[in-house]
Amino acid sequence: MTSLKTVPLTTEGGAAWTVRAAAGPVPEGIRTPVAATVPGEVHTDLLAAGLIPDPFDGDNEGELAWIGRADWSYRTTFDWAADDHAVQELVADGLDTAATVTLNGTELGRTCNQHRGYRFDVTGLLVAEGNELVIDFAGPVRTAEELAESLGLWPHTNHHPYNAIRKMASNFGWDWGPDVATAGIWRPIRLESWSDVRIDSVRPLAGLDGDRGVLTTHVALAWADGATEGATVTVEVGGTTVSEKVAAGTGTVELTSTVESVDAWWPRGYGKQPLYDVAVALDDQDSWRGRVGFRTITLNVAPDKDGGPFVLSVNDKPIFVRGANWIPDDAFVTRLNRATYETSLQDALDAGMNLLRVWGGGIYESEDFYDICDEQGLLVWQDFLFACAAYSEDEPMRSEVEAEARQAVTRLSRHASLAVWNGNNENIWGYVEWGWRAPLAGRAWGEGYYFDLLPGIVAELDPRTPYSQGSPYSYDHFIHPNDERNGTMHIWDVWNQVDYTTYRKYKPRFVSEFGFQGPPAWSTLVSVVHDEPMDPYGRQMLVHQKAFEGNLKLERGLGDHLPKWKNIDDWHWTTQLNQARAIIYGIEHFRSLFPLNTGAIVWQLNDNWPVVSWAAVDGHGIRKPLWFALKRVYSERLLTVQPRDNELVVAAHNDSDVAWSTEVTVTRRSTAVGSEVLARETFVLEVQPRSATLSSLPASVAVPGDAAGEYLEVRGGDGSTAYWYFVEDTALRLSGDAYAASVTPTEDGYDVTVTAAALAKDLALFPDRLDPAARVDSCLVTLSAGESHTFHVTGAAAPAQVGVPVLRSANDLVS
For the CA atoms of 577, 268, 508, 701, what is the dihedral angle to 10 degrees? Predict the structure, then answer.
């Protein structure tokens, strides 16, 4: 027997591809073939060829909308060295999306699903020299519209009928993303040549039995016609080897390996993340390698006295989720790689997060993403790719959904970090409340996927990972899917309709979406918005604000919290600060409810282009004030002051395995110069591991003599802090000369030391205003009189001094 032979047809593998516009509304001069990168997308190929401007800049997005309506043809030629294998196959891991594949004039097949791979038998079609492979892509926008017209229109959000086609929904534009519907060979493509038998897929499912690791490896085999000789499948893991001889034609084989005294895999903050190499061999013909972590994960949604919980447990230990929603990290996803994922996932890790939700309007991410999550202990909540729409359950959609789900579960099930399979984003809620039933007129809308097909596939292929029907969902057909007392909740009346103080009116069991908008870093914003003068309602600014009435909501969202801006610099700082304040307010409240509340997943961690959005990290990778706020409220130990039953309490949540014991000093101070101490109380805080306490504050500190001129400072002996203000900033007396700053050069940048003479609230440094490459280590720092803080800046030379708009605070907005 001879081992399987692989010939990559990617650019990196040596294949030379071209792409040309084949039909559609194409400007003059763009029908000539240009060099294409595979994997890649037509936008990035046209950009590399200098034929289009940056789609993210100015209002180029609209000017380039024709790309999504045009047809595109990719072509390569290659030679083929004949071998003694019986079967040759063309394997395409990802075609985006409506494609016709032709080899040497023979049509191999047609595809219409970005979310799955395809195999085409090319046995007998290859020649020694000059093989021509052509992949023609129909315009994705036009294809979606034609499918919606021919098969029927199902209700959806946003402009295009993205739900008519199995393609990344947000690629058609979202309320944070550009409308840049792409086409192209977006994942690797290759030729495989083999005889007799090959490995079709491997599903190594690792679990725990006491202190033993149990690996059940499911190997699917593909056999050549006429194969008569059997084969031996061998699995090696953790120093153990098991083998099984199978007869020719056997479709699947299951091998069980036991590893004694295995080291269990844990999410970050709960233990280590040991990973074990798994090697699968099919005689000397084919092989597979991967890594697994031994763990168990369960989801408890059983009714209790308060309704119905949502509790994820790893290795029988409940996990308090400190998470964020994850969108595709670039609107052009083929620009992503291991290094870009490492950078963005580090943003989650540094913020104290332990879970990312891969949202249903995006993609099943690359192996790099899940590998890093395995290594770093970041749990992954994986949506199936349905978002904010009704979906046909008729053919051909149903078969495509089943095929993609089977491939996705098979590919991803091995990952230790995979914690939840989720049926959809907001579609059950949409059916109940968004007016879909009338236009659907009795047609199926996706319910069969979420309650039958998808859970059946998960139960069959990945029974060790919990399945959730949707988000939000209350885990009962007779309860509203977005009920705060049951399961998961999305809170979007905050931001869309009501003030962020509404968060405290809810007592959610688990919040899987909530968020508040703010602009990106100044340098990010002005790199793509060139309005003169700069204005929140400028023409290009609004191109980079996708939310319905987004800038109006930013303005309305200030409420009584902060004054309306006086200029564009103040607009930028005020709305960034208000975004951070809103999320702080919500998460501190949710954590104060523990154990009733078991976690929160903020919308969203990242951006896919430079835009005003809910993200904590902007499209250029700059951490917004919101990110620094998340870092504080997602710390393992959190102090916060909360109102409870007409009194103030100090809520302490200890999400660690070590008891928290410290002396807490609560001081009522004047906001004026000197920050005079008006009252002081101390108490001993004792919080057991993975638990929370509420400590009432006596009237001596909790009741102000002058609400507009006083505040509470809560300080633990271990350095933990919290603050409470009796009035909003618009009524708070903050000094305009509360602090002074000095600049000191360092080897890698510079330090800015700020010293307070009075209450200095929410100090923030924005060094990117001086140099877009500059980064700062801290933000939203509050100081009482006599205190100092040093901001450390890297990546830029030191200025002589800093002031507004580089150094900001709440003081300079209201003083």
Answer: -60
